[in-house]
Amino acid sequence: MDKNQQLIDKRAASKLGGGADRIERQHEKGKLTARERILLLMDEGSFQEIGMFVEHQSTAFGLDKNKFPGDGVVTGYGTIHGRPIYVFSQDFTVLGGSLSKTHADKICRVMDLAMKNGAPLIGLNDSGGARIQEGVVSLAGYADIFYRNTKASGVIPQLSVVMGPCAGGAVYSPALTDFIFMVEDTSYMFVTGPNVVKTVTHEEVSSEDLGGAKTHAEKSGVNHFTAANDVEVIKQVRDILTYMPQNSQELAPNPSQFEFSEAKNSAIKSILPDNSNLPYDMVKVLDAIIDDNSFREVHADFAKNIVVGFARLEGKTVGVIANQPSVMAGVLDIDASRKGARFVRFCDAFNIPLMVLEDVPGFLPGTEQEWNGIITHGAKLLYAFSEATVPRITVITRKAYGGAFDVMNSKSIGADFNFAWPTAEIAVMGAKGAAEIIFKREIKSSDDPAAKWTEKETEYAAEFANPYRAAERGIVDEVILPEETRSKLILAFKMLENKSESQPKRKHGNIPM
Ligand code: HXC
């Protein structure tokens, strides 16, 4: 046979994965194949495959007669929006995308290349887990991947897209990466599946309820981005990458074009209600400040009392962390602290400046919070901000109370600038509670305690329910009109562009885990 034709035939066989029948079954489930996914993900014509003919070396349980070129994972490199990207995509049509030692070695090879070349790694996960016939070598293969995920953390962005099963120890590779994307209805992640759960805890739960996209987006916070199907999730990944640099030594790309509707500037004035105890939507405030349609919310359905995500100011990426007064008054609780801290650390690792919008009444009280460790979890957010060396600016729109004021990127923990709106209230606590404590005796001994309390509350509010006491002490750098916020932020971030700050010499800090 013509040798060139032999190669062409071998390529065609490899591209068929587990064969036409299994491809059809994959499509029937509403899923694309590993290669179809890669072709959608990468710029047209850019994908180059590595290890197309690699096969597993196992012989147990008839595996020697069950070989597929590529061994259930397609690996390689290409470009997304013209920038180099490394990728692996598990092929469920080949032995259920199960992970053999060979399969793991292929993944490790692209991980090593991504690290050496300072380019993001994207993993498309669709696998029945460790290849059961192989036993412990496949477990070692997982560990090889986990080890590299950890080494690559903070060096290159790592994105995991879960597009099918991801169960058992296999979940720990996505968990070690920066962001997890899940597809509704076809993907699930759990350490132990419904059958084991039933045996051990007698709970009856479906795969979807135990570990589907919605569950992890809303309940556990494991999932950062949810999409309706494979095509949508790939679009999301391509889009979110435009907000990130290639690696920790670079800056995010800066699109020269951006739009900003000036009308938003006059609208920003009327977002806050007159009564400072009423809610409003902080995302509206954010949208009025940033480039049009530039906000990409991360963890949109988890701990909604804090909002985090990427946005742009005159084309430049910023990481936004904002209290959300319309959910639980924007209070900080365990989940909000974890969510905020993780995002702050991603931004700091990848040179993305932090923009904080603050309206926080404090930490959430209660036994549930205390017993579950709000002290440790709240400290995560405090630690994350304190160690961040990227440019960071806070705008206090309204409440900045108590310890939560310190935590939300205050100047004392290293923020570069703090601005406050005229509506800001910067105090140890709300006026009502403060009056009750410091004027307790006066209120009690008064003929009309209720009236006395109100009087003292008003007195305390007059003193602290404004930004000027803080401005007098330099705790706030400038009191600004809402409509000045965008221009003040743009100018301040420009001034901070060359900011250089180093950490004390140490092996690594010890973040409260
Ligand atoms: C080998 C596997 C496999 C596996 C699936 N297959 N999982 N082969 N090792 N882990 C094969 C099936 O035999 C089948 O082969 C094909 O893939 C498709 O599987 P189906 O069961 O027909 O598909 P489906 O009905 O969609 O069910 C998918 C599934 C199920 C839910 C993932 O296959 C399943 O439960 N698999 C086992 C999951 C598991 O327990 N994995 C080990 C977890 S322990 P044919 O030839 O019939 O098409 C683990 C430890 C990791 O992963 C630890 C890391 C530290």
Description:
It is a single chain. The radius of gyration is 26 Å and the shape is elongated. The protein has 513 residues and is α/β, with parallel strands linked by helices. The model has no long low-confidence stretch (mean pLDDT 96). Strand 10 (296-298) and strand 11 (306-313) form a beta hairpin. The protein folds into three domains: 3-243, 2-enoyl-CoA Hydratase, Chain A, domain 1, CATH 3.90.226.10; 263-428 and 465-495, 2-enoyl-CoA Hydratase, Chain A, domain 1 (Alpha-Beta Complex); 431-464, no CATH class. Strands 10, 11, 12, 13, 14, 15, 16 and 17 form an eight-stranded mixed beta sheet that branches. A seven-stranded mixed beta sheet has the order 1-2-3-4-5-7-9, sandwiched between helices. A two-stranded parallel ribbon has the order 6-8. It has helices at 3-15, 20-28, 34-41, 101-117, 136-152, 172-176, 194-201, 207-211, 213-220, 230-241, 263-267, 282-289, 334-349, 367-371, 374-387, 402-407, 431-438, 440-445, 449-464, 468-472, 485-495, and strands at residues 48-50, 73-80, 83-90, 121-125, 158-162, 165-167, 179-183, 188-190, 225-227, 296-298, 306-313, 316-323, 354-360, 392-401, 417-420, 425-427, 478-479. The structure holds hexanoyl-coenzyme A.
Write the layout of secondary structure elements.
Blueprint lengths: L2 H13 L4 H9 L5 H8 L6 E3 L22 E8 L2 E8 L10 H17 L3 E5 L10 H17 L5 E5 L2 E3 L4 H5 L2 E5 L4 E3 L3 H8 L5 H5 L1 H8 L4 E3 L2 H12 L21 H5 L14 H8 L6 E3 L7 E8 L2 E8 L10 H16 L4 E7 L6 H5 L2 H14 L4 E10 H6 L9 E4 L4 E3 L3 H8 L1 H6 L3 H16 L3 H5 L5 E2 L5 H11 L18
Parallel strand pairs: 3-4, 4-5, 5-7, 6-8, 7-9, 12-13, 13-14, 14-15, 14-16, 15-17
Antiparallel strand pairs: 1-2, 2-3, 10-11, 11-12
Helix pairs in contact: 4-5, 13-15, 17-19
The chain binds hexanoyl-coenzyme A.
Hexanoyl-coenzyme A binds next to helix 5 and strand 6.
